[in-house]
Amino acid sequence: MERQPSLEVELGHRLGRLTLDVGLRVGAETLALVGPSGAGKSSILRGIAGLLVPQRGRIVADGRTLYDAERRIDVPPNERGVGLVFQDGALFPHLSVAHNVAYGLRARGVGRADAAQRATRALERFGLAHLAGAKPTSLSGGERQRVALLRAVATDPRILLLDEPLSSLDTATKADVSTELAARLGALRLPTILVSHDVGDVLGLASRVAVLEQGHVIQEGTPAELLATPASAFVASFAGVNYIPGFATRRDGLTVVAGEGQTTFFSTDSLEGPVGMIVYPWDVAISAERPEGSALNAIAGPISRVSPLGNRTRVAITGSPPIVAEVTEESARRLRLSPGVVVVASWKATGTRLVPRSPGNGELGSERGGAAGVGATPG
Known about the structure:
This protein is an alpha+beta fold. The protein has helices spanning 41-49, 97-107, 112-125, 141-153, 171-188, 223-228, 233-239, 329-334; strands at 7-15, 18-26, 30-34, 56-61, 64-68, 73-74, 82-85, 159-163, 192-196, 208-213, 216-221, 242-251, 254-258, 264-267, 273-279, 285-287, 297-309, 312-317, 323-328, 342-347, 353-356.
């Protein structure tokens, strides 16, 4: 029976004040590794590629050991079968597109003539043959990323690693490249790790997401699982939802949640004890005054940020706790929403989902508590 593509990573390494301690298992799929700058994401990719020697751990691809600290196995980078796409593409500016693609093959020991022929065929397969003679400096951002991806996959790698492949692209180009990238990754069926600081960039690309904080994976699951039940305020910030820690008790058919300070919230979920309240931004209404009706939950405060999101608008409100709402463009114009305007954010008890919270995970008053979403991505 043919062995299924697989990648197993156990990696421990000290990086200044940060200690990496990560275990990952990837099959013929795309795993997104998301987290803030400085969490160790790129260092994990460098360790897999052989550009960093971990102090502890092992890396196994398709049953072949690429690195084992205890057994002192360290396969050279050019023999690992790893395709690596850097954030800026890392194309050689003095070489043509065709020579950039051929360079990856030459680095794997392919002869000059054979590398040139394979590069030509690869460019044709990717629909980039018309760029063969162009220099990287004359390419658009999207074209550079396509060429960088092609250079990586032209070597027929066992593993594909992509470091922030969309972060340098404008919104329109990002959407275009993301669609093409999703199709390419699906066809390749390789163990692929895609690093990003923005979960919005990876939701359509990854079958699973691992969230990295301070060198540790704090939650892993499908995009839907992370969106539905973020394990902490940190994860919620990447999922683009509001996460408010509190303590829940049942009262008169509702769940009453004591938040930070004297704030009280209501939910129709039946859960008691330490909880995290999950409120989707699109369930939050904005008004100039507290509305009458069925919305039992309300937070007042000044707007800190207004961000267009397609035909919707996300509004960050500095309340106690802070919260993010998502409204229509028409509502944003009608209410004249802008930074500094004081508004009331309200939502129904049915819009407050509750998940268990371990003591110490998103404690009241912690700097990670409260809302997450617009502007919540750490630098």
